[in-house]
Amino acid sequence: PSHAGCSTSPAASSSPQETTSPKTDKLFSLSGLFAVYKPKGPTSANLLNHLKAKLLAEAGVQEVVRKRKKPSLKIGHGGTLDSAASGVLVVGIGKGTKLLGSLLAGSKKYTAIGELGKATDTLDATGKVTEEKPYDQVTKGDLEKVLQKFTGDIMQVPPLCSALKKDGQRLSCLMKKGVAVEAKPARPVSVYNLSLQNFQPPLFTLDVECGGGFYVRSLVSDIGKELSSCASVRELTRTKHGPFTLEEHTLHEDKWTIDEIARSLDNCMSLLPEEPSHKKLKIEHSGESAVSCEDK
């Protein structure tokens, strides 16, 4: 198989004890984009580390190999998903990590369950309740009318608790340490579609399709304020990221094997743009870090 960017140096492979197995060869030849299912709980980075560890263990590759200057497995994700959220997490492996930048500004779809009358410091159910307000006056019609104000190109203030950074540290990490964090300025974001799926006070369910850099938690909080109440996210699921959908493309943990990922990479090739746009995207996003991006 092709060792995409992962050939070992002559010095590293001269000893007979260090010969690679077919599994190792196959693992280091994997290249492209695929999607995994992220459950509630782990951070996107932790999930990626777990995935990487499983693949290296299956191939019989130990961490100590890196110290001999053999190639480490290149892997990254195309957009942070909150630890409390679940759904599609797009993963790049091998040369596919260079394509992750193209996903940062791409379209995403979410299903969000919001709760009226309760605000938290994280804008979701994981945080401390900071405010409670009546919501009995809010009707389904009120909510549907308010959604129109949040559709199209809008300005949005990112949450204090987020993957955005200050002085090299994530705001969410600073908040956990008790450091006072200032709100980032409002920035332009795009909402392509926003619809109310269910309304059973205090809960309401939204379908959201948005562009990069958008925070569903901020949206739900802003909707609560607009309704003269307050609101926070009870549950959040990313159902689509770029061309990858929750139903069709995500691999659950029991499918995190070298062979399953190889199959998935083959199946997902047709979803990706043609080579010329890849080159263009690499230039446009050369300054971005795909693993620590800010999208929610």
From TrEMBL:
It comes from the Eukaryota. It is found in: Cytoplasm, Cytosol; Nucleus. GO terms for biological process: mRNA processing; mRNA pseudouridine synthesis; tRNA modification. Residues 1-24 are annotated as: Disordered. One of its GO terms (cellular component) is nucleus. SUPFAM superfamilies: Pseudouridine synthase. It holds the Pfam family TruB_C_2. Keywords: Acetylation, Cytoplasm, Isomerase, mRNA processing, Nucleus, tRNA processing. Its EC number is 5.4.99.25. It is an enzyme of class 5 (isomerase). Belongs to the pseudouridine synthase TruB family. This is Pseudouridylate synthase TRUB1. It comes from Crocodylus porosus (Saltwater crocodile).
